[in-house]
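does this look right to u?? iron/sulfur cluster version
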Amino acid sequence: MKTTTVARTNQVTPQCEGLSFRNHHTSEVEKEPPSRPLTANPEDEPPGKTAAGRSYFFRNVPATSWNDWKWHFRNRITTVSALSQFLPLSPREQRQLRLVTRRYPLSITPYYLSLIDPTDPDDPVRKQAVPSVQEITMSTLGMEDPLAEKEDSVVPGLVHRYPDRVLMVLTDICPMLCRHCTRKREWRHGGWMRTGAQIEAMLDYLRRNDNIRDVVISGGDPLTLATSHLEVIISKIREIKHIEIIRIGTRFPVVLPQRIDAELCEMLSRHGPIWLNTHFNHPRELTAESAAACDRLLRAGVPVNNQSVLLRGINDSVETMLKLCQGLLRIKVRPYYLYQCDEVQGTEHLRTPVETGIRIIEGMRGFTSGLAVPTFVVDLVQGGGKVPLQPNYALSMSQDELLLKNYEGQVFRYRNPGHQNGRRKVAAAPAVSGVVASLLADATPPAETKGDADAARVSLRP
Ligand code: SF4
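got this back:
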């Protein structure tokens, strides 16, 4: 089913209000040059980590604007020429990026841009936000809609794939356009939001299907809607008795945490249980602002989970994922999923072999608390759904016992309880009276021959 475009947003302001711009490639200075030189001095803090939580590009922006998510939204960087005022881009790169953005547009919030180190072309934050020419040179690989969301749409914008839950896509607008996005196909349609009639059709489907207990509101990013508009939709979902929980999928805590304001949190707290899934991919995204946003949500009774995507050259190492997931726990966000990057056209350069994800989980499990270890999943093509992939810890399994490998690679025998066949010989029980014996017959598990099992278990240790 084709998603329809219903309401286009206005053109985004190409330049930011009140900012100092500098083109690092041509050294053209349009306003005041930054007072700090752009050198990779190891003594310097990276640009995103200044005390005020913003780079020197934005140091002249008044706090009232910087703390206002609508200011960031209005001032998104959406053109290559605006971007070249912040990052060093050669004329050739600019030409390439113009070509890419004709097919896959660009949008970066000033907040997220402030996390980029402009001196590092391989900066992991930059790679998620700044287009790459490989988006088009490798675009023969992958599919437009690998998860077949259109086929599983029961009404426009409502995907019903699993028995008890649905995905409700309210808009295709996002504050930032992530280069690895699964719904990249929607970008060329421009910004749209569902009409009142389309939302009513979705609600009607929910009312008629009482097996649905969980509604995931996603996008695009649903928090681009005004809080009052979102409240109308959420309260109508809440009126449906069989809907138990609502989940919101949003990247705002990462790319524009100022959006998580008191008004939004109060609204969400009125309509719980609401869960929020966000999308941190790299420890550099864990800032004071993003931590405060998550804290506000938690205080409003909204549990926050994180869904990362495994991305080549960004977070595809044990060290980075450990740092990210441990950092998430410190801000009380649970690492939930680590996704294999979907087979989406225009993302091939960011995809990793599946083994990389398994190796990362193997390098985390046991080496840090289990709460910090996400579930690695592949979302199957053609709407096959999510499949969790684990390192192989079970080397063999029979009715009697398993051979299990622990996180250090040591192999243990583990007795498999519950099967009657193949039990080891039971030691003779001490004599008991007839009544007691009959009571114990059902309640006492058969004992093993003393010593055998323990001796055997450690025998395989290296
Ligand atoms: S926030 Fe999500 S939907 Fe929006 S561009 Fe990023 S990955 Fe895609």
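The pocket of iron/sulfur cluster is lined by residues 174, 177-178, 181, 183, 219-221, 251 (CB under 6 Å). idk if thats expected tbh
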